[in-house]
Amino acid sequence: EQIKKGNYDHFMQKEIHEQPHSLTTTMRGRLKDKSVILGGLKDHLKTIRHSRRVVFIGCGTSYNAALAARPFLEELSDCERLAGQEGPIYREDTAVFVSQSGETADTLLALDYALENGALCVGITNTVGSALARKTHCGVHINAGCEIGVASTKAYTSQIVVMTMMALAIGDDRISNQARRESIIDGLYKLPSVVGEVLKLDGQINDLAKSLIDAQSLLVFGRGYNYATALEGALKVKEVALMHSEGMLAGEMKHGPLALVDETLPIIVIATRDSCFSKQQSVIQQLRARKGRLVVMCSEGDASLVCPGGSCRVIEVPQVADCLQPVINIIPLQLLAYHLTVLRGFDVDQPRNLAKSVTTL
Ligand code: G6P
């Protein structure tokens, strides 16, 4: 049943709209009152806690998911730091491999390397029985259900949720962060229904897509928890809508990208409420001063604050806990990529030159 489109025109559209359900199945049986139970990790949590580093490895959307979850993992783990894609892996490290398919050749090559070097290897995948699931020492299945569209959508949000749950499990041994952990767990319970609310923006996002149909390029500025959202939103737009798009760190704006700003280049600024909000407000002010063509994503009720006088387009999204906000904020961008693709007449589920899973090096 999962591999039929049902009432949808495309798999990507179906998978975007499935997210309240896929997130529910990702969390099913794993939240108990005020704690997280990840059966696949329980015998290894101590080793992970005592690792020198936790290193995340993934490609494309899976890489962006690790980047989205990283700040919270850093907050709740004692590990020295969490690294990105590059650099050597040692015996004292935990290496976490993130892959929807579990068959991406680049990721599997890095897995062989980490295994050779004696690191604890953890797999986070959507595919039971995949090479990644078989070769890693332990792991978590994201249980998002079959994903057919080449552009990954529901797997991304489920990956973030799994890594957030992993951070909660790692941080479970400390009283000091108990209140924070409990508030995030509370947020996880509510997340699927909030995602359902965000999906109601579909019509509004379709209108936005209509206004952007002829744009040459689209910039997305994010920061903090939502830097990954900017990268992933831009990746979706370039993958399927075949429009040049870049996700950028908003703090870097005045060091180069500002030169591009004019009345024609559309720029999305992610400015939902978190500790980066005031910095994002000043980015918006600078862009408005240069008459940038702005679309601001903000928390519900903030429209007139981020965009006084209605001088830019605004996407208002519900506010959730900071580390869960990337799950909410990516959804309007997934919808935007989808509608842009349909309006521009490109193949949604099979974008040119791309494969769902790249199994060769
Ligand atoms: C390909 C797909 C991307 C995907 C990436 C990683 O490039 O086109 O959508 O994010 O592989 O795939 P994985 O299965 O390892 O998550």
Automatic annotation (TrEMBL):
EC number: 2.6.1.16
GO biological process: fructose 6-phosphate metabolic process; protein N-linked glycosylation; UDP-N-acetylglucosamine metabolic process
UniProt enzyme class: transferase
Protein's recorded name: glutamine--fructose-6-phosphate transaminase (isomerizing)
Entry keyword set: Aminotransferase, Glutamine amidotransferase, Repeat, Transferase
Transmembrane segments: none
Pathway: Nucleotide-sugar biosynthesis; UDP-N-acetyl-alpha-D-glucosamine biosynthesis; alpha-D-glucosamine 6-phosphate from D-fructose 6-phosphate: step 1/1
Species of the source: Spirodela intermedia
Boundaries of every SIS domain copy: 44-177, 208-351
Catalysed reactions, semicolon-separated: D-fructose 6-phosphate + L-glutamine = D-glucosamine 6-phosphate + L-glutamate
Molecular-function annotations in GO: carbohydrate derivative binding; glutamine-fructose-6-phosphate transaminase (isomerizing) activity
Superkingdom field: Eukaryota
Keyword Acetylation found: no
